[in-house]
UniProtKB/TrEMBL annotation:
Record's subcellular location: Membrane
Protein name: MFS transporter
Domain of life of the source: Bacteria
Keywords: Membrane, Transmembrane, Transmembrane helix, Transport
Provenance organism: Mycoplana rhizolycopersici
Entry annotated with the keyword Signal: no
Cytoplasm found in the keyword field: no
Membrane topology: Multi-pass membrane protein
């Protein structure tokens, strides 16, 4: 169906160069009255009129830019987190606030942004949040410190949530209506590519001027995206009154609960759970705040977050599977990269692995988009999780000599699974929203944001915690073995000390270096063994998740037959 015509101020339909200019500026006056056939079922979503091929290409390019920008700035920080400590004069527990605050604000703001778009329109939605991020990044270039860095990451979390939505909305315009699920799969799958792409960026180009290059890169990317969404406008959505006075109260408790929960989980693995009393208090307070928020929402006629809908069996099962998937998918970004860095490697040393991972992720996104369909969603999710189980099990045989080439196959499998999983899982939840008339979109976005962001924090915390305990166990075991082979220990330390003979003339210093090297070898052996335990635990969790899904679908398939047998 063609888009409705528009007239200029003199009442004439534009033609020639004027028509071309209007086409390039897309829907600049928002004076369109779209027929019901192209309007979206979901309030706040733009209509989907027919577009010429050239416009669809521009929409696709804008979707790619917005989707990657939504996560690339934070991904570059996360990929270079160990190297940023010195530039900001922070320790590891302080620098860890940066990814945590991004994920917290990203999880919290999704549902509010949906209502904002419904009431104030897409144009305001785009301009305000992108402009906020640009201003804060520019301010951080002048004022360097932890406070300003946290403010930038918080703003990036908000704008990242907005840009993820824009990536989906622009991609929907880029493809015909018959390929709506493919468009959603492609749009939502762009952000996971950001972290993989960030590891491919040259560190030297970002680290100049005490890492000023990183913030200039993020500023330039945000300005480019702001210019793109100013020029390439979405069809204007029909505005409705979305906010109510009770939204503010419930959002305060909801945001406080998520903020406290995310901060405690995100920092617990760095500060350690029992070392800081505020972690326990934050966890307790988060339960209270979320309880109050859900209690308020439960009794509302038009809730911000529909608690009754979220407690339905289908949504609960979807939530459990999605969180479990986020935990097992953390194997790549936390465990494998951590193992390589513990071996003394930096991003450039395993750039070939980063390229393999990135290309596999692109392939997973394409395969997921081409395969997505109403009857294939569960199958794609199970396939993705089972691939992670196989890859993590193979990684559990890593050793001190394991380097990037030995990880090509397994990490390609996990990257493929990551991008193939997120699209079908989102579409599955979106279908539940559409089946209910689209009114529960804010509830679904709140849940999806929480499963992705808080799920990532939970995955990181679990891996860090289990890694620590496994390392301590292996250290004790190796120490016991060293006692059994005590006669061989002096020979080993002397052999290690002999390496320093050309540089150290003092025999006592050489002996001390030999002992230090021997201790370091034992520590690395314990560390690698602990990583193997983590990989095995991830494989078992992925296998258990897949088995649970298979059992549920088998039960669903057999239930009509058992009911019929009982009736007869």
């Amino acid at each position: 169906m063609a888009e409705p015509a528009r007239a200029d101020v003199a009442g004439r339909t534009p033609s020639g160069p004027q028509a071309l200019r209007k086409r390039l500026h897309f829907y600049e006056d928002e004076a369109f009255d779209f027929p019901p056939a192209v309007r979206s079922v979901i309030p706040g979503a733009p209509p989907t009129p027919a577009h010429p091929p050239a416009r669809r290409i521009v929409y696709a390019a804008t979707s790619l830019l917005a989707g990657l920008t939504g996560g690339l700035g934070n991904a570059v920080v996360l990929a270079n987190l160990p190297y940023l400590e010195g530039s900001l004069g922070l320790d590891l527990s302080e620098i860890a606030w940066l990814p945590v605050v991004y994920l917290v604000t990203n999880a919290v703001t999704g549902c509010v942004l949906v209502k904002y778009r419904q009431q104030f329109g897409i144009r305001s939605f785009c301009m305000i949040f992108l402009s906020l991020q640009v201003l804060l990044i520019a301010a951080h270039l002048a004022v360097r410190g932890l406070d300003s860095a946290i403010a930038v990451r918080a703003a990036s979390g908000i704008s990242g949530s907005a840009l993820t939505s824009l990536g989906v909305l622009y991609m929907i315009q880029a493809l015909p209506a018959s390929h709506r699920q493919k468009a959603v799969t492609l749009g939502i799958g762009l952000q996971p590519l950001a972290l993989l792409l960030a590891r491919l960026l040259p560190t030297d180009a970002l680290a100049f001027g005490n890492w000023v290059g990183l913030y200039l890169f993020e500023l330039g990317l945000s300005l480019l995206t702001l210019a793109a969404v100013m020029l390439v406008r979405l069809p204007p959505n029909q505005r409705v009154k979305a906010f109510s006075r009770w939204d503010a109260l419930s959002f305060v408790f909801y945001a406080s609960g998520i903020g406290l929960l995310g901060s405690a989980i995100g920092l617990g693995g760095y500060l350690w759970w029992t070392n800081e009393s505020w972690i326990g208090w934050a966890l307790a307070a988060s339960i209270a705040c979320l309880g109050v928020a859900f209690l308020i929402e439960y009794f509302r006629a038009d809730p911000l977050i529909d608690v009754r809908w979220l407690s339905a069996g289908t949504i609960v099962r979807w939530t459990i599977v999605t969180i479990a998937a986020r935990i097992v998918l953390s194997e790549q970004s936390i465990a494998v990269v951590g193992m390589l860095r513990d071996a003394g490697l930096v991003n450039e040393d395993f750039s070939s692995l980063s390229w393999v991972i990135f290309l596999a992720a692109v392939a997973g996104l394409v395969v997921g988009a081409l395969s997505v369909g109403p009857n294939r969603l569960a199958g794609l999710v199970m396939l993705a999780i089972s691939l992670v189980a196989v890859a993590a099990f193979l990684d559990s045989f890593s050793s001190l000599s394991t380097r990037a080439p030995q990880l090509y196959l397994t990490q390609a499998m996990i990257a493929f699974s990551t991008t193939m999983f997120i699209g079908p899982s989102f579409v599955f939840g979106l279908n539940e929203v559409i089946a209910g008339g689209g009114k529960r979109m804010t509830s679904f976005i709140a849940l999806f944001g929480m499963t992705q962001s808080i799920g990532s924090l939970i995955g990181t915390a679990l891996i860090q915690t289990y890694l620590y305990f496994a390392q301590q166990w292996h250290l004790a075991d190796l120490a016991a073995q060293a006692e059994k082979i005590a006669p061989m220990v002096p020979d080993t330390t002397r052999a290690l000390a002999a390496r320093y003979q050309p540089t150290l003339q003092d025999p006592l210093l050489r002996s001390a270096e030999g002992v230090a090297q021997f201790s370091q070898q034992i520590l690395m052996d314990a560390r690698i063994a602990a990583y193997d335990d983590v990989f095995l635990a991830v494989a078992l969790l992925a296998l258990a998740t897949t088995a649970a899904m298979l059992l549920f679908f088998a039960w669903s398939w057999l239930r009509p037959f058992t009911a019929e047998a009982k009736a007869s």
